[in-house]
Amino acid sequence: MSENETDPATDRERLPPKTITDRFDSLSVGDEISFNDRDTPYEVVETDRYSVTVAGPNDNRVTLSQNLQTGGWVVHEELWWIDAERGVD
Prior knowledge:
mainly beta
């Protein structure tokens, strides 16, 4: 397994922000990535210094961006559907 490959989702451990940044730095438009506990591959559609935008199934766009204060990375995606149920008192 190369340094850019990880174990299946159930075996993944949290990566340091620097490792994630290094992996993002090597991405190009058209590459595929998977992240966190999502096994679905996403296609890279745009990159810049502090973010990567990917497209998933049905062309749903997700932006992965770096928090400049902590160096960590976060996932931003459009909320397009929600279901909520009230708890029983």
